[in-house]
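Our consortium's second objective concerns turning raw sequence data into structural hypotheses that experimental partners can test. To show how far this objective has progressed, the report includes one record in full. It was chosen at random from the queue rather than selected for favorable results. The single chain below, 275 residues long, was entered without modification.
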Amino acid sequence: MEFQRKVAVITGGASGIGLATARQLAQRGASLCLVDREPAALDTAATALRAVGDVRVEARVCDVSDYAAMQALATDVVQTFGRVDIVFNNAGVAVGGPIAEMSHDDWRWIIDVDLWGPIHGVEVFLPHLRGQQEGGHILFTSSFAGLVPNVGLGPYCVAKYGVVALAEVLQRELREENIGVSVLCPMRVSTNIGASERNRDERYGGAEAVDQGSKQVLDQDEANPDLAGRVLTVDEVGAQVVAAIENNRLYILPHQESREFVRRRFERIDRAYEQ
């Protein structure tokens, strides 16, 4: 895909992988609609991106778990830009701890944002991509936890496994329409997902529902030796996301060290046929 004059929508676009990918696309001449729940961070990100080059950058506050809000967003994007070409369903949150300690609100929050958010993205933007009949690309941020079970991340794994399935099925269904699909499954990346509770609203018990930090996700930095994988920068991952769009690649697997874990999982499945 050539990016000049293309329009990209990125949820979770005010920071982390979303913002890094936006920078890469802006450098290639794409127009951008950054979507996030944090107005101040969103404005700062949009201002910084406008300085990258002669590209149009719009910022929209939207909760991806809200279907009506996402419908309004899609209508707004098409009316504002006249089209949409790339949709990156990247927004995500996380809660840590054993499944037995998860509250019902923990489950609802993770599933609503991490799984329903991407589903909403498909529901509201895919009709526009198909109607244009000019191809396009839909992307999802899943996780290593969407390929291999991660102890202490049960709800997150359930949602991210679902995102991988969504991408895999969608890729098969859309390949004859020149609409590419990619799913990003990284291990550790230098994002602020460990502070997800800042965006947990009262529908899910608010930030205090994290129980004074006991359900926070472990720090993703190098100082934590208990987590597997190198810590990649968001720019390294953003570059791989853009490369996947250019090359129409389904799986984006930035950590080579995740390969052994994935292989062992499928070996366990294969052995079960013989038992």
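The partners drew two points from this record. Residues 171 and 274 are 31 Å apart (CA to CA). DSSP finds seven helices and seven strands in the chain. Both points have been shared with the crystallography group to help prioritize constructs.
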